[in-house]
Amino acid sequence: MNTDLYTPFLEATRSVFELMLDLSDVEERSSEGFTGDNTMNISIGVIGDLAGEVVYCFPAETSLNMVKIMSGMELDSVDEFVTSAISEISNIISGNVLTILADGDLKCDILPPVIRTADENKTYALQTACCLATSAGDVCLDIRLDPTAQQ
Amino acid sequence: MLWKGKYELGVQLVDEQHKELFARVEAFIQTLRSSASWENKVTKVNETLDFMKNYVVEHFQDEEEYQRKIGYPGYEEHRKIHADMVSYVVKISEEYERLGFDEQLMQQFAGKLLAWLINHVASEDQRIAAYAIEKGVAGNEH
Questions:
Q1: If you write DSSP's letter for every residue of B72-102 in order, what string do you get?
Q2: At a CB cut-off of 8 Å and minimum separation 6, what does B119 contact?
Q3: ipTM of the complex
Q4: Residue A148, CA distances (Å) to A46, A49, A95, A142 in order
Q5: Among B33, B119, B123, beta carbon nearest to A81
Q6: How far apart are CA B79 and CA B85, in angstroms?
Q7: pLDDT tens across A89-103, in order?
Q8: Which residues of chain A make contact with B35, given a CB cutoff of 8 A?
Q9: Residue B121 DSSP code
Q10: Phi, psi dihedral angles at A69 (to 5 degrees)
């Protein structure tokens, strides 16, 4: 199965960042040097023709900058308000990816965002990282999916 | 100010309602995020929440009526997005009362509401405007 997941996630993230945050300077970057320190990890479960999860890794600085852009307010810590807003952005990006995948006849659904890191002990047939650099900070997506039996 | 000119659809009634919604959400978040104690904030938060619960439903109905009027093909899908949001607001409100006006739950609600509203108006609603322009029915409110 040759499923390109990297491009849909990259496209959807770019589009949501531009539309919601007016970030037009979104550039691909290497995952090297992207540490999990002081990072909020939001997992979006995927079910359907593909199953697994996508973990969005937002460094604290990126989260605070993004919510500041949306709310116009200064924020100094990643609290319930910030976590919820960033979780919703992850949810919106994932929803947009499903629309792109559906155009390619892959029918999937997503589960509500959960704060958790990826299970490093599990391996997936379709596993890739997609990292972006923006003026609001960096963000990394850990895509971990398997084609299901219907394929 | 949360509202931006790029969110305008060119439909007077809907644009005015969107501006009011953004202003209310902004006031709601400013109250929630102020440094006052929760005891001092809770009355205003409750008032704003009550207003929004009613206003959101009223606005969604008016916007859906406009979609029907211009024959918007994404009407059913858009109506489901509205219905899901109304269900979420009702669920959160019930939980908020059950938990005795819990501040953390309201902070979570405000974060999701902020991101949801921006995306919905900047993305989903813009498709209605694009359709109206394409079909030459833009501004056909009456």
A1: -TTHHHHHHHHHHHHHHHHHHHHHHHHTTS-
A2: A16, A19, A20, A88, A89, A92
A3: 0.92
A4: 11, 5, 19, 19
A5: B33
A6: 10
A7: 999 999 999 999 998
A8: none
A9: I
A10: -60, -45
Q: What are phi and psi of A46, to 5 degrees?
A: -120, 135
Q: What's the predicted TM-score (pTM) here?
A: 0.93
Residues with Cβ within 8 Å of residue B60, at least 6 apart in sequence: B82, B85, B86
Q: What is the DSSP letter of B122?
A: I
Contact between A73 and B123 using a beta-carbon 8 Å cutoff: no
CB contact under 8 A, B107 and A19: no
Are the C-beta atoms of residues A140 and A131 closer than 8 Å to each other? yes
Phi and psi, residue A127, nearest 5°: -130, 120
Task: State the Cα–Cα distance between residues A54 and A129, nearest whole angstrom.
Answer: 9
A26 residue type, one letter = V
To the nearest whole Å, the CA of A125 is away from the closest chain B CA by 32
**Does the distance separating the beta carbons of A92 and B115 come in below 8 Å?**
yes
**What stretches in chain B show pLDDT beneath 50?**
none
Q: Do B115 and A83 touch (CB under 8 A)?
A: no
